[in-house]
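Researcher: Good morning. I'm working through a list of sequences from a screen, and I'd like to move beyond sequence-only analysis. For each chain I'm collecting a predicted structure so we can compare shapes side by side. This is the next one on the list. No need for commentary yet; just the structure.
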Amino acid sequence: MSKQTFLQGALILVAAGLITRVLGFINRIVVARVMGAEGVGLYMMALPTLILAMTLTQFGLPVAISKRVSEADAVGDEKKIKQVLLVSLAITGSLSILFTVGMFLLSPVVAKYFLTDPRALYPLLAVTPIIPIIAVSSVIRGYFQGRQNMKPQAFSQVIEQVVRIGSVFFLTKMFMPYGVQFAAAGAMSAVVLGELVSLLYMLRQFKLQKRFKLRRTWQHHIAEGKKTLNELMTIALPTTGSRFIGSLTYFFEPILVAQSLAIAGLAVAESTRQYGELTGYVLPLLFLPTFLTHALSVSLVPSISEAGAKGHKQTIHYRIMQSMRLSLASGGVITIVFMIFPVVILTTVYGTSSGAFMLQFMAPFFLLHYIQTPLQASLQALDLARPAMWNTLIGAVIKFVVLVALSSRPEFGIRGVAVAISIGVVVVTLLHLGVLMKHKVVTFPTLLFGKFSIIMAITGWTGFTMKQWINLNSVEHLLMVAAMLSVIYITLLFAFKLLTKEEWNMIPWNRWLHKK
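Model: Good morning. Structure tokens for this chain:
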């Protein structure tokens, strides 16, 4: 089994994340154009319920598996790795059955009384079979991460998106004549199909690359797995707490939005449409750079765990600061483009300028979201998952209070939801950073933030000046401006040493260009 370094593993996931993010974005465009804002709203209303069920099923085990497998792999303890894998499969397998049945039975109640739109029942039922699929794939994914072999996960992500985008257009078109709710169910069915094919690929890779046999004495390993279970739970329980809080807030968000907008005087169909614009149009754009932050986070857990076991504090500090630096760098230029050209972006992508103000307003706040994920991964790798859980809870409570207070007022409406989400991002990110500072893992990155602010100011001023002189009346003009800003931005990253030549040279296309 091939093993990669921290940056190699991250870059493999970055490449896969870039491909899947582009494909996923195309998928959202297809869904949006076929079903419209109302269909997207139904789709997005059903999604939080799915995320909540998946979070409970996984039980925070992928991170725990990655950490414990990495530690066992460092000392060559294959028996321990096998035990971790079997205990994890037993837990997730049992939970998946429970939550699949529960979601199937409770979907009518959730759709009618919580989401306030009975049509959400159909996408909820369509996506229910994904729970056991995700349960097994999360364990296999955690195993490969712990081995620091990111290739199977990377290829599986691409496969999943290819299958999904290949089937979503066909399924939504096929069911659209029966109603927008059935089209949303078709889109959810495409998600299930993609995850199933992805799981089959990972199982094949696991069978080819594993160093032990699962058939023999698997019951014995589970029976003697009490210690392993305890070791997993010390990480999994607070990690589950964080994800449960996040998923619970994601679950209640559309419910609170629907109720608050109703208080503000909006009809059900109109509130669904506006929520679809925010969650189906604006947020996918803001989440585009997170393929890099996710890749860094996945690689951080085994890397920091290994360094912590060896007592290499300087390595831990360097990895965390490196992940923050690269995460900020990944989102800078696209944030500037969103802030200066929101109408052009939304019109080009979705054929509508609805949500332009929300995109422009939320973009700078999401720079902190880009560093939030690696910060949380660092806390989990350092056995500080419990403080991370409390940070998530505090941020969720503050977000909900602001959401209800603002979105229930007619003068704010859906914009109050955008403000609440942005405040939640800022609070959680700063709390995560505060915990690392409290435990003297890192100091406040004043120099990093200062340099990055200067880079953003120069690039932003350049972009604003271009907007005054260039008439953006085509996609080609927008791409030209974005390319020019990217060149300026990358040059400044090197000048201020937020990106090093070593990191740049590790990108595959640079090696290909040198060979040519």
